[in-house]
Amino acid sequence: MRANQNLLNRMRLASGLVLFAFLAMHLANHALGLISLQAMEVGRTVFLTVWRNPIGTVALLGGIVVHVALVMHALYRRRTLRGIGAGEVLQLLSGLAIPPLIVLHVIANRLLHERFGIDDSYTWVLMSIWVADPLEGVKQSAVTLIAWAHGCIGIHYWLRLKPWYPRLVVHLYTLALLFPVLGLLGFVAGGREVEALWQDPAFRDRFWADLNLPEEAAAWAYQTRDTALWAMAAFLGLFGAGRAMHYAIERSRGLLNVTYPDGRRVTIQPGTTVLEASRQNGIPHASVCGGRGRCSTCRVRVADGFATLPDASEEEQKVLRRVGAPDGVRLACQLVPTADLSVVPLLPPGAAPKDGFRRPSYLQGTEREIAILFADLRSFTKFSEQKLPYDVVFVINQYFRYMGNAIEQANGKLDKFIGDGVMALFGLEQGAEQGCRDALEAARRMSAALEKMNEDLKSDLPEPMRIGIGIHIGHVIVGEMGYAAAVSITAIGDAVNTASRLETANKEFGSQLVVSKQVADRAGTDLSGNPERQLEVRGRTEPMTVYVFDDAMELPDTPAHGRGRRRAKTG
Q1: pLDDT at 557 over 60
Q2: CATH for 256-356, options being 2.70.170.10, 3.40.30.10, 3.10.20.30, 3.40.50.300
Q3: What is the pLDDT of residues 313-332, one digit of tens each?
Q4: Taking Cα atoms as reference points, which of 119, 108, 181, 112 lies closest to residue 144?
C-alpha cells in the first residue's frame, strides 16, 4: 500500500512539473510584450508548436487530470489538516482556487479554437481581457500569480531535500520573482498596444473580419463556464460527503493506541499512520516533506510493538538507509500500526531539511574513545568587573572566535562554550590516536592564537589574557543531547570530568597546558624530555601521570602535524 503511495507521489510530482513548465513558457511568452505585440505573436508560435500538437496536448491534459486527481486523492486520505505548515496550507488553498478562476480563460481560448476555429492570438486575448473586460484581465493576472506561487511552493518542497539546493536557492528565488514580474509587465505593455490599435476603426473592422467569430460563440462560452463551475461545486460536495462517510466507516472498526515518550496515549483508527496520529492529536512531529516519505525527518524509534509491524516498503528502506538509521527505526509517515504501538520521535519538531541527509552515526548516541580538551581563561572574572558590559562581551566573543578557529583548524569538534571556557572533542571519526594528535595540535594553535589576540586587543586589555588547557582521553558516550533549540553534540563520562580537572590543575602548576600520559602515548608523541608529574584527581583512587607545559607551543611535533606547528607559530 505504501509502495503504491510512493508511486502516486512521484506521478503527482511529474504531472506538476509538466504544468509548471507550461506556465513558465506562458509567462516567458507574456514577457515578450515588453518588446512588442508582434514579438508576443512570434513567441506564441513557438509556444503552440510545443503544446498544441498530439504529444504536447496529451502531456498537458494528462498532467492536469493526473495532478488534480492525485491532489484530491491526497486530500481524501488526509485525516486532519492539523500540524501542516503554512506553506502547505497556502499550496492547498491556491490549488483549489485555480480551476474556477481559470475556467473561462481556457474556454475562451483553447475550446473556442477547437469548436469554432477561432484564432486565439494575443490580439484576441488582450482585446477580450484588457479592452472589453478589464476585470477579467485583473482576475487572470491574479490567477497567474496564484498558479505560479502554487508551483513554486511545490518545487521548493521537492528541491529543499537535495543537498545542493541551499547553494542555488538564492538564484532560483530570483528566477521565481523575475518570471511573473516580467510576464505581467509584458502583459500590460501588450494590452496598452492593443488598446491603442483599437482606437482605429479600420483596425477594428479588419480584426472582426479576420476573427470570424460566430454569434453563438460567446453564449456557448459563458454557458460552458457556468456548467463547469456547477460541476466543480457538485464534485466538491460529493467529495466531502464521500470523505465523511469513509471515515465514519473507519471509525466503526476496532481502535488502536499509540504511546509517546511523555506517556501520552492517543487512539487511532486502523489505516492511520503514526504521523497522522501525531497531527490529529496536536502532538508536534517533524515532517519537512509533508509526509511524502522523502525526507526522513519524521522517523521514530519503535519502543514497543515492533514485531507486529508490517515490513517497510523498498522506498521506505531506501530513505532509512540513506540516513543510516539503525534497526527499530521507521518513517512515521509510512508506518501504519496494526496493533498497539509505542514510539519515540527522533528529531525535534522544528527539524530542518539538512536533518534529512545522512548524518554521522555518533549523533544518535554511541560509546567512543576520544580525546577531550578543556580550556578556560584566567582572571577573567576580575577583568569583567573592571569593564563595561559591552567591552566584556566584545572581548569574550573575540576570544571564542580565536579559540574556535584554532580548534576547527585542528579537526576538533566544538562541544560548547561554558562561560569563559571551551570544551572540544577530537577523534569522533578519525579514531583515538589521530584524535590525540589533533588535540595536541589544537593546544598549540590555541596558544598561538591567544598571543595574536593579546596583540590585536592590547588597547582593550589591561594585561594579556592567560589560558589554561587540559587534555585527556577515554571512553565516553557521544550524541546529540539537550532540549528544543538547546540540542548540541556533546560527550558525557569520567574522561570528560578528568579533562576538566586537568585544565583546573594549571592553576596549581602555574602552567598553560596539562596533558595526561595516556594522550601523549596514544598520539605517539615523545615527551620523555619533559618531567612527569603525579596529580591527585578528585574521584580517582590512583594519582595520574601528567605532563605540564608553561607554553603549549613548546609541545614537540606529532607525526601528522609538524607543519601545523610552524603555521601556528607564525599565524
Answers
A1: yes
A2: 3.10.20.30
A3: 888 888 888 877 778 899 99
A4: 181
